């Protein structure tokens, strides 16, 4: 299998997960698409450095996280008064899901990124704590602590909103 076919197969397998993760990071579909494209371009250029194709997803997620960080080095994001935004302005709102899922999404959005990011990586992307630690450049203990605190904060947020779905998730 040639380099192009090898990369095409890797990219096709992980692109949906990359986009979903980018959307959680940016909350903007257009920026998320750009981040995924940049990550895939950098991945293509560095394909020879990928030793284990089984870790391609983690490798590309790491590239995507670094691309997202570079985005903030290059530009200053426009400030938006989030209190002035209405429900229709929320990019992640989904009208076809159960109300409890929307409540959980909103609660996750309220978490600080240091807690939200590892939780999303574990729950949505299926990463182990070891993989999250490698991607985020943390110790495994720090990841476990952040996951514990994220779940605790999520539980408090959901209980204060009267959402019963938490017991089904835990």
Protein architecture, described:
With 170 residues, this protein is mostly helical. It has 2 domains: 3-74, Orthogonal Bundle (Rna Polymerase Sigma Factor, Chain: A), CATH 1.10.1740; 96-169, Winged helix-like DNA-binding domain superfamily/Winged helix DNA-binding domain (Arc Repressor Mutant, subunit A), CATH 1.10.10.10. Helix content is 69%, strand content 0%. The chain has 8 helices and no strands. It has helices at 3-26, 29-45, 56-74, 99-110, 113-123, 129-136, 140-160, 165-169. Helix 2 packs across helix 3 and helix 5 (113-123) crosses helix 7 (140-160). The longest helix has 24 residues, at 3-26. The radius of gyration is 17 Å and the shape is globular. The N and C termini lie far apart (43 Å).
Short description:
The protein is an all-alpha fold. The chain has 8 helices and no strands.
Which blocks of ≥5 consecutive residues have pLDDT under 50? Answer: 90-95, 165-170
H/I helix tally: 8
String of helices and strands: HHHHHHHH
Q: Helical residue percent?
A: 55-70%
For the record, the CATH architecture of the largest domain stands as Orthogonal Bundle
Mean pLDDT rating: 80
Distance N terminus to C terminus? 43 Å
Quick one: how many beta strands?
A: 0
Under the CATH scheme, which class of the largest domain?
Mainly Alpha
Shape: globular
- The CATH topology of the largest domain, please? Arc Repressor Mutant, subunit A
Work out the count of structural domains: 2
Strand content: under 5%
Radius of gyration: 17 Å
Largest sheet: none
What class do helices, strands and sheet pairing give? mainly alpha
CATH superfamily (homologous) name of the largest domain: Winged helix-like DNA-binding domain superfamily/Winged helix DNA-binding domain
């Amino acid at each position: 299998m040639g380099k192009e076919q090898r990369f095409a197969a890797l990219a096709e397998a992980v692109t949906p997960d990359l986009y979903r993760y980018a959307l959680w990071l940016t909350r903007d579909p257009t920026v998320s698409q750009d981040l995924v494209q940049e990550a895939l371009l950098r991945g293509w250029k560095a394909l020879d450095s990928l030793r284990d194709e089984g870790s391609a997803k983690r490798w590309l997620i790491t590239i995507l996280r670094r691309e997202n960080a570079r985005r903030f080095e290059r530009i200053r994001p426009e400030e938006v008064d989030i209190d002035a935004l209405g429900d229709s302005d929320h990019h992640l709102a989904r009208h076809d899901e159960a109300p409890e899922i929307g409540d959980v999404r909103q609660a996750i959005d309220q978490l600080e990124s240091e807690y939200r990011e590892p939780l999303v990586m574990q729950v949505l992307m299926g990463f182990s704590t070891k993989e999250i630690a490698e991607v985020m450049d943390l110790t495994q203990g720090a990841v476990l602590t952040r996951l514990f605190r994220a779940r605790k904060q999520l539980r408090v947020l959901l209980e204060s909103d009267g959402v019963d779905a938490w017991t089904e998730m835990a």
